[in-house]
Amino acid sequence: MKKFLSFLLAVIISISLTIYIPVNAYADTNQTQQSDKELYKNLSEIGEVMQYIKENYPGNITYDQMKDAALKGILSSLDKYSEYFSSSDLNAFQQSVSGVFSGVGMVIQQNPDGKFVVISTIEGSPAEKAGIKSGYVIKAVDGKDVKGMDINDVVDLIKGKTGTKVKIVFEVNGIDKEYEFTREVIKINPVFYKIINGIGYIRINEFNNNTTENVKKALDYMDSNNVKKIVLDLRDNPGGMFEEAVNVANFFVPEGVVVSVATKNGKDEKYYSNLKKTKYKLAVLINGGTASAAEILAGAIQDTKTGILIGEKSYGKGTVQVIVQLSDGGGLKLTVAKYKLPSGRCIDGVGLMPDIKVLNKSGDNQLNKALEILK
């Protein structure tokens, strides 16, 4: 039992060290000692249960499996954004927010019938160069039939070390075709831009490590074409990296507070824009899929009256999460704070209300309204 309890303590200690915040040094010593006693008592009880399961459960289960299940249970008892990651899940999550991975460059989804369908290919990727088109159905990867598999497992089969090869069988118009790809480093560009009748259009799909630099490229393009009016499309943008949203806000929001983060200790940490003078007339498109970091940007623009919001009420995610890596390679995504917009409002569970409400009933009414207003 002592050996097993040491195993549990090692897990807890690794968590505590990773998320340690200096302000905790001001905590009351007696209260901390009492919390430690409660922690050890609960760990002892958990250890007893896990050891009893190990000795008496007729199926095969390891302490690691029970530990993973216990940690998932703990995190699921908190808010809906906090969760535990296994090492493979953490790696996949980190890749998704970094915007860089090694693969062939396809965006796929699983249809209701279970088929894995190519939605699009990334510009310059092996998949695009090979002529892979939207609608191709993935049948097998390196000889493994993907029928009945989870989409994450299919993605893991396609991804791999840069320079290695992967064979994928697609169903194209009822005929199976096999393609061989050499995996490359794929850098996801979350920004799309163009000019529509003299008005700039910039769509941000998510806030990953590449967002700020690509928004800068889009704005340089607008400046080179003397564009002063911009539609910023944040619809169905689920958010992403907090810092990227603040960085992008520096292109549009005038000097001052962009967002404040209120932590458990009661102190607000403020993040600022250093923009001396705004240069664009803005219309921002939002809808129910606009969330988190995207709401920070849209909310800061609305609060500072830098632009108008058009569309539908946003999602309403007003909390901040941190990623904590554990000693075994797994990790936590833990909610640690709520954020407030420049006006001091918190939109968690409330969302942003558009200045002009427009439903997309036919065509793209929201974009058309934005273009009409900016004329």
Automatic annotation (TrEMBL):
Family matches, as PROSITE patterns: PDZ (PS50106)
Cross-referenced InterPro entries: ClpP/crotonase-like_dom_sf (IPR029045), PDZ (IPR001478), PDZ_6 (IPR041489), PDZ_sf (IPR036034), Peptidase_S41A (IPR004447), Tail-specific_protease (IPR005151)
CC per GO annotation: outer membrane-bounded periplasmic space
Protein's GO biological process: proteolysis; signal transduction
Entries under Pfam families matching the protein: PDZ_6, Peptidase_S41
Signal sequence interval, chain numbering: 1-27
Domain PDZ: start-end pairs: 90-159
UniProt keyword terms in alphabetical order: Hydrolase, Protease, Serine protease, Signal
Domain of life: Bacteria
Any GO molecular function: endopeptidase activity
Family membership: Belongs to the peptidase S41A family.
The protein's name in its UniProt record: S41 family peptidase
Higher taxonomy: Bacteria, Bacillati, Bacillota, Clostridia, Thermoanaerobacterales
